[in-house]
From TrEMBL:
Pathway: Isoprenoid biosynthesis; dimethylallyl diphosphate biosynthesis; dimethylallyl diphosphate from isopentenyl diphosphate: step 1/1
GO CC terms, sorted: cytoplasm
Entry-linked PROSITE patterns: NUDIX (PS51462)
Ranges of residues in domain Nudix hydrolase: 52-204
Keywords attached to this entry: Isomerase, Isoprene biosynthesis, Lipid biosynthesis, Lipid metabolism, Magnesium, Metal-binding, Steroid biosynthesis
Gene3D superfamilies registered for this protein in UniProt: Nucleoside Triphosphate Pyrophosphohydrolase
Protein name according to UniProt: isopentenyl-diphosphate Delta-isomerase
Entry's EC annotation: 5.3.3.2
GO biological process, one term: steroid biosynthetic process
CDD domains (alphabetical): NUDIX_IPP_Isomerase
Length: 233
């Protein structure tokens, strides 16, 4: 490991450091895949400041009571440890089955994989075809606790309504809960008062987009914008 890598990873969890070797999908501003890039490369602010951009996804999982599943990121996470966020936020990898563009299939395959990896949700409880791809959001945010790290992503928004059994992986998730729309609004208020922490992408989506999706979970098709990239940074 180079001196730079040792400095960047100083004090961080060994499991999370190993995950930084995964190859994300580096994209241009139109979300066109360019090349693989390690998770480490994609999340260092020195690279982000030069314009490095990668593909991501955010899952919003609702149960039969129309409550949204949230997770609190483990303290072992390198970026935004201890923050509350949407069900799962992660990245498709530079793999043949996660690079499939048609109907956002690659992203949906990755979403199923990470829902299992982080929350222990069985594949049969959240099938690839159940994920509804809504739109893309382009955002940038440094990590407050360790500002050498950050996020600069074109985030593919996925919604799924299903009942699942959660078996959270402690190294990934320290807590989880279902919330109603009113309970989420209270969490946003608490974050404004610095009582709790919400990830910047989750708060951005919750404040600007989530209500219309939440109100139309039984008929999302008219709200789908597959070719749209919403720039919010």
């Amino acid at each position: 490991m180079s001196e730079q890598e040792c400095t960047a990873f100083k004090g961080h969890d060994e499991v999370q450091i190993q995950l930084m070797q995964e190859e994300c999908i580096v994209v241009d501003n139109d979300d066109k895949p360019l090349r693989p890039g390690s998770k480490k490369e994609c999340h260092l602010m020195e690279n982000i400041s030069k314009g490095l951009l990668h593909r991501a996804f955010s899952i919003f999982l609702f149960n039969s009571e129309n409550k949204l599943l949230l997770q609190q990121r483990a303290m072992e996470k390198i970026t935004f440890p201890g923050y509350w966020t949407n069900t799962v936020c992660s990245h498709p990898l530079w793999l043949p089955n996660e690079l499939i563009e048609e109907n956002a299939l690659g992203v949906r395959v990755a979403a199923q994989r990470k829902l299992n990896h982080e929350l222990g949700v069985a594949f049969e409880e959240a099938k690839v075809d159940q994920f509804k791809f809504m739109t893309k959001i382009h955002y940038l945010s440094p990590s407050v606790e360790d500002p050498q790290w950050g996020e600069h992503e074109i985030d593919h928004i996925l919604i799924i309504k299903t009942n699942v059994n959660v078996h959270a992986v402690p190294n990934e998730v320290m807590d989880h809960k279902y919330v109603s729309k009113e309970e989420l609004k209270e969490m946003i208020k608490q974050s404004d008062e610095n009582q709790i922490k919400l990830t910047p992408w989750f708060k951005l989506i919750a404040l600007n987009h989530l209500d219309k999706w939440w109100d139309n979970l039984e008929n999302l098709d008219p709200l789908v914008e597959p070719s749209t990239i919403i720039h919010r940074y």
